[in-house]
């Protein structure tokens, strides 16, 4: 399987569309068999999805990502593990060992009469740290 992680420095980028490079790796039998850092030449998120497709990426592990981009990635045959943060090499090793559990994010600050209630409070709800 070919996997990619958008990175900033040595960490998973906090957002799918903000990384300066991609860590691209081949995983076979629970072992990372190769890895390379690919400079991100995309000027927008849709171009980044196209770049992933051209690289043959099957799995993407990333930080925050919009619903629109999740659907676009899925339409391009790319499985996504969003809301993952930490050192990219450790995250890659965890992916090789079996991946990440599925999760549902809470919806905060929605509904009539609540305004901005709940936004930006209570810590990193829904984030996975390694």
Q: Could you walk me through the main structural features you see in this protein, from its secondary elements to its overall organization?
A:
The structure is a single chain. This protein is an alpha/beta fold and 130 residues long. The chain has a single domain, classed as Dinitrogenase iron-molybdenum cofactor biosynthesis domain (Nucleotidyltransferase, domain 5). 22% of the residues lie in helices and 28% in strands. The protein is built from three helices and eight strands, in the order E-E-E-E-H-E-H-E-E-H-E. The strands form two sheets. Strands 1, 2, 3, 4, 5 and 6 form a six-stranded mixed sheet that branches. The radius of gyration is 15 Å and the shape is globular.
Write the layout of secondary structure elements.
Layout: E1 2-8, E2 11-12, E3 21-28, E4 31-39, H1 45-55, E5 59-61, H2 67-75, E6 79-81, E7 84-85, H3 88-96, E8 128-129
Parallel strand pairs: 1-5, 5-6, 7-8
Antiparallel strand pairs: 1-2, 1-3, 3-4
Structural class: alpha/beta
Counting DSSP E segments of at least 2 residues, the number of strands comes to 8
- The CATH class, by name, is Alpha Beta
The share of residues in helices is 10-25%
Percent of sequence in beta strands: 25-35%
Q: Could you say what the CATH topology is called?
A: Nucleotidyltransferase, domain 5
> What is the average of the pLDDT values?
81
| Measured distance between first and last alpha carbons | 21 Å
Uncertain runs: 103-125
Order of helices and strands: EEEEHEHEEHE
C-alpha Rg, in Å? 15 Å
The CATH homologous superfamily corresponds to: Dinitrogenase iron-molybdenum cofactor biosynthesis domain
| Shape-level CATH architecture | 2-Layer Sandwich
Largest sheet geometry: 6 strands, mixed
Instruction: Supply the number of structural domains.
Output: 1
What is the count of DSSP helices, taking H or I runs of 4+ residues? 3
Give the overall shape: globular
């Amino acid at each position: 399987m070919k996997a990619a992680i958008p990175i900033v420095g040595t960490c998973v980028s906090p957002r799918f569309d903000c990384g300066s490079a991609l860590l691209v790796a081949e995983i076979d039998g629970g072992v990372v068999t190769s890895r390379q850092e690919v400079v991100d030449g995309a000027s927008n998120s849709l171009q980044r999805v196209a770049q992933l497709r051209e690289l043959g990426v099957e799995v993407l592990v990333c930080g925050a990502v919009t619903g629109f981009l999740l659907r676009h990635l899925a339409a391009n045959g790319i499985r996504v593990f969003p809301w993952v943060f930490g050192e990219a090499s450790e995250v890659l090793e965890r992916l090789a060992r079996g991946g990440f559990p599925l999760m549902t994010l809470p919806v905060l600050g929605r509904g009539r009469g609540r305004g901005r209630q709940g936004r930006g409070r209570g810590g990193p709800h829904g984030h996975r740290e390694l």
